[in-house]
Design goal:
Chain lengths: 134, 364
């Protein structure tokens, strides 16, 4: 190999390595800072819930539903398709997404539409007059 | 006085010579049609966006607590604020339409073929940058439409395994749309995208100027065209100077653009401002009628129809890449689409599907 082409090769390699190493801090800079998640459990009075109540659980919009004959369930309201918030349709016993018409049943499973997976079910316990979520 | 200034400039930078060699002696074919002016009209639309955008910047406040009210303030308190914002909104829609018309007409005339592949690629990138402008722009007023349209779009990458989740979070700057997202999109909209746009436009126009305007495939010059084997500025059977002939054509089309902008502002002021754009963002309520802008309706409707998220979005990514690199696939010599029924058919079907999806998305 000629000295000249050897030198330009070395230059090219060192140059790309130093440029490339700059990419790391820039990508890191773009990554989201860690969000603070509020402490695990949350308590709500049973009498406040009624048929259904929209709540905020660990920064995520969620809903507690009193299903006729099947008891309480807490579900995330974030549609698993592209993140719109579901509306509870009491008559049809469904959760309906206003964006691309995804439909979930009250167990959080997909009935129809584009959502790829079930809704996150949030653990829920009834303790006397209180409902404990999380 | 003009005489003096001109002489002074002639002495220093050879002005007359520059104008003569780059404008008057620059030849364009005499059988161009009206579509050859759309590129420049699009560029003017961009400058309208930039000027009105800088004026909006003077009162707009990029913060979740103030964004919506600062835009309302522009609309109702600031003298002629409504005019500046309306021009920005209407011109942005027209700019997208112009880019589409520009691309479709070039495709139809086969003018992306050798030696103009890179010009096409740069144009395709300009379409993407324009759409990014719109996307980042419409989060800024922090309305219901802003908030939820952006929620949907920033979640699109989650269809891809492994990197998808990370990518979506980088776009949003967190799990959900928040003040971080607003700041991010604001810097994209007014800081990053303009220089990127200018750089690509620079390349695009340099290539057009250096290679020379193409001729329509159905024209006399086209019959005499030889295969491109080495560089030389395109020659024509019949041509005239760029300035003043072609230049005047462009100026009249630019005037038409202004006329359309003011026509829409006067007679259809709410055309691009649906109800959800007049309601402040509410992160706990997705409005029922959330619809993307008309140019995103076709992909939006497709997403509704195709039940598999990964599949639905992959099709669109493949379509974008095919579109960007099309000249490198379609390398035959025949430019005239009328002599290529298969391509013509596919093209017409594609366009009709696009229109059908758009209308379906709009009225469903
Ligand atoms: C240097 C250029 C630009 C600057 C400084 C700028 C600045 C701004 C600002 C401050 C806003 C928020 C105020 C408002 O919502 O009315 C805005 C909104 C917007 N911009 Fe731009 N912009 C520029 C170029 C563009 C371009 C090229 C496009 C697309 C073709 C575009 C599309 C939009 C859209 C769709 C909105 C939302 C309009 C609305 O709903 O209010 N902008 N821009
Ligand atoms: S976001 Fe719910 S169906 Fe698309």
């Amino acid at each position: 190999m000629q000295r000249r082409s050897f030198l330009s090769m070395i230059f090219a390699i060192i140059g790309s390595i130093s440029l490339g190493s700059l990419a790391y801090p820039f990508l890191k800079y773009l990554a989201p800072p860690k969000a603070e998640i509020k402490a695990g459990k949350q308590t709500i009075r049973k009498s406040d819930v009624g048929d259904a109540k929209e709540i905020l659980y660990q920064n995520t919009p969620a809903i507690i539903i009193d299903r006729p004959g099947k008891g309480l369930i807490a579900l995330s309201r974030v549609c698993t398709h592209l993140g719109c918030l579901l509306d509870y349709d009491k008559q049809k016993k469904r959760l309906i997404c206003p964006c691309h018409a995804g439909i979930f049943n009250l167990e959080g499973r997909v009935v129809s539409g584009p959502p790829p997976k079930s809704l996150t079910v949030i653990p829920l316990k009834v303790e006397g007059e209180d409902i404990v979520i999380g | 006085m003009w005489q003096k200034i001109r002489e002074g400039l002639n002495l220093r930078i050879g002005l007359t010579d520059l104008v003569d060699s780059s404008l008057k002696e620059h030849r364009v074919p005499s059988d161009t049609n009206i579509f050859y002016t759309i590129g420049i009209v699009t560029l003017v639309a961009y400058f309208i966006m930039a000027v009105t955008g800088y004026f909006l910047l003077m009162y707009y406040v990029p913060h979740t607590d103030h964004a919506f009210s600062s835009v309302q303030n522009i609309m109702t308190n600031i003298s002629f604020g409504w005019l500046i914002r309306m021009i920005h909104i209407v011109a942005s829609n027209l700019m997208v339409a112009l880019v589409f018309i520009h691309l479709i007409s070039i495709f139809f005339m086969g003018n992306y073929k050798k030696p103009r592949e890179i010009t096409w690629l740069a144009g395709g990138l300009l379409l993407l940058v324009t759409l990014l402008f719109c996307l980042s722009g419409y989060l800024l007023p922090w309305s219901q439409r802003s908030y939820w349209a952006t929620t949907i779009v920033t979640n699109i990458p989650t269809a891809f395994p492994v990197v998808g989740e990370y990518l979506a979070n980088v776009l949003k700057g967190g799990e959900a749309i928040s003040g971080v997202t607003l700041t991010r999109f604001f810097s994209l909209h007014v800081g990053f995208l303009p220089p990127v746009f200018m750089a690509i436009v620079g390349l695009h126009i340099f290539l057009v100027w250096r290679i020379g305007l193409s001729v329509p495939p159905f024209s006399k010059s086209a019959e005499e065209e030889k295969p491109w084997t080495e560089y030389s500025h395109t020659t024509y059977a019949e041509s005239y100077p760029f300035y003043p002939h072609f230049f005047m054509k462009e100026v009249s089309m630019v005037m038409l653009l202004f006329a359309i902008i003011f026509f829409i502002i006067s007679f259809f002021p709410t055309m691009f401002i649906p109800e959800a754009a007049n309601t402040p963002a509410d992160p706990f309520k997705t409005p029922a009628d959330i619809k993307p802008e008309w140019y995103f309706l076709a992909p939006y409707q497709m997403m509704k129809l195709i039940p598999n998220k990964f599949f639905g979005i992959s099709i669109q990514v493949i379509a974008i890449f095919t579109f960007l690199f099309w000249p490198f696939f379609d390398t035959g010599d025949e430019k005239n689409i009328i002599k290529r029924p298969a391509l013509m058919g596919a093209f017409i079907i594609l366009l009709s599907v696009w229109f059908a999806l758009t209308f379906w998305g709009r009225y469903s």
